[in-house]
TrEMBL record:
InterPro entries assigned: TM7S3/TM198-like_dom (IPR025256), TMEM198 (IPR040236)
Protein name: Transmembrane protein 198
Keyword set, alphabetical order: Membrane, Transmembrane, Transmembrane helix
Annotated membrane topology: Multi-pass membrane protein
PANTHER family reported in the protein's UniProt record: DUF4203 DOMAIN-CONTAINING PROTEIN, TRANSMEMBRANE PROTEIN 198 FAMILY MEMBER
Family stated for the protein in its record: Belongs to the TMEM198 family.
Gene: LOC108255238
Compartments, as annotated in UniProt: Membrane
KW Kinase (keyword) present: no
TM stretches of this protein: 32-51, 58-78, 90-109, 114-136, 142-161, 166-188, 212-231
Main location: membrane
GO CC annotations, alphabetized: plasma membrane
Residue ranges of domain TM7S3/TM198-like in the record: 40-233
Length: 343
């Protein structure tokens, strides 16, 4: 603290030939790839800031992708892997691949995605607090910023799991505003603000002071965060809930399963009825003369028994055709008499 106070108070006077670096014009030479990446990130920042909660699944995927790819890229690029120093292209490829896996996990598992969203919110708030505190006090050990980052990240993650809607809106608004601030810093002063924040986190003894336009760019962050939170709360997130979407999908699946089960039961019942039930035959249309009187049958039997000869019975059987079947009826007039009966 004494060193910083002495540095501020004992600032050497600028000679007539020395100029304030903030007054010098910045040599803005943009490259194609960083400019395209910054423009794309600015678009994602707008979606994050103003439509974060509405695009819940996409935001969960992007949070896991960014978090996983950045962490793995820094580990691979700064550290030696298998006793070899990886190039920036190889480190970016490994980070992107692992980031895609992290994005899929955070998108499919809702609790993991919310936990990651809360960690991002905590890290951003801790970075902002450390940047402001560094203007007044510089910690003596690196464990202080590390502990602040981890503690704030875990606290916000637990709060996000408890109050999902509120902290998801706040986290997406703050993160989207931070992305747009970094993109503006690239196009205005070629990431001088980001470099200063990085040096403050590394506890560099005397980092280059920020110019007035750097503070203006930094002021965009809280302003956009508040604006994005209000827009989501009143407009884009109004009447939308990520839990209701998941419940409605489950209800639709249950309804489909119930309908299919009912169809299967109906098919089983119809198949069982076809195996046990026999259709009755169509009744034969009858007339009044088709029915044989019992007295006539009895007299016919007595006549056949009274003849005693097989020849007469054969002749009677040949000349008298009487159908004894109840269903089919007779085929000849019943008034026809045979020769045996006359004799």
């Amino acid at each position: 603290m004494a060193d910083i106070a002495g540095f501020v108070s004992e600032e050497p006077a600028k000679g007539p030939g020395e100029l304030d670096p903030c007054l010098l014009e910045i040599d803005r030479t943009y490259e194609i790839v960083p400019a395209v990446i910054s423009s794309t990130c600015c678009l994602f920042g707008i979606i994050y800031c103003f439509f974060g909660y509405r695009c819940f699944k996409a935001i969960m995927f992007l949070s896991g992708l960014l978090f996983g790819s950045v962490i793995i890229f820094l580990l691979c690029y700064k550290e030696r892997v298998l006793d070899t120093q990886l190039s920036i292209e190889a480190s970016a490829g490994i980070g992107l691949g692992i980031g895609l896996l992290c994005g899929l996990v955070t998108m499919l598992v809702r609790s993991v995605g919310l936990f990651m969203t809360g960690i991002l919110l905590g890290l951003l708030l801790a970075i902002g607090g450390l940047l402001l505190a560094h203007q007044l006090y510089t910690p003596s050990t690196l464990w202080v910023p590390v502990g602040v980052l981890l503690g704030t990240g875990m606290l916000c993650a637990v709060l996000t799991l408890q109050w999902q809607r509120f902290f998801t809106i706040i986290s997406t608004a703050v993160f989207g505003a931070a992305i747009m601030t970094v993109c503006a810093d690239y196009f205005v002063e070629l990431l001088m603000l980001v470099t200063h924040i990085y040096n403050c986190l590394r506890l560099v003894p005397a980092p280059a002071p920020l110019c007035w336009y750097s503070w203006v760019i930094l002021g965009i962050w809280p302003m956009l965060s508040i604006m994005g939170g209000l827009v989501q709360w009143k407009l884009t997130a109004e009447g939308f809930s990520h839990t209701e979407v998941i419940i409605s999908r489950r209800q639709k699946r249950l309804q489909l399963m119930r309908i299919r089960q009912k169809d299967v039961k109906k098919l089983q019942l119809s198949a069982g009825q076809e195996g046990t039930y026999r259709r009755k035959p169509t009744p034969v249309k009858r007339y009044a003369g088709d029915l044989l009187a019992p007295s006539y049958l009895q007299s016919l039997r007595e006549r056949q028994m009274g003849t005693g000869t097989s020849l007469s019975s054969l002749s009677t059987a040949n000349h008298t055709m009487v159908d004894m079947d109840y269903d089919t009826g007779s085929t000849v007039p019943l008034t026809h008499t045979t020769a045996a009966a006359r004799t």
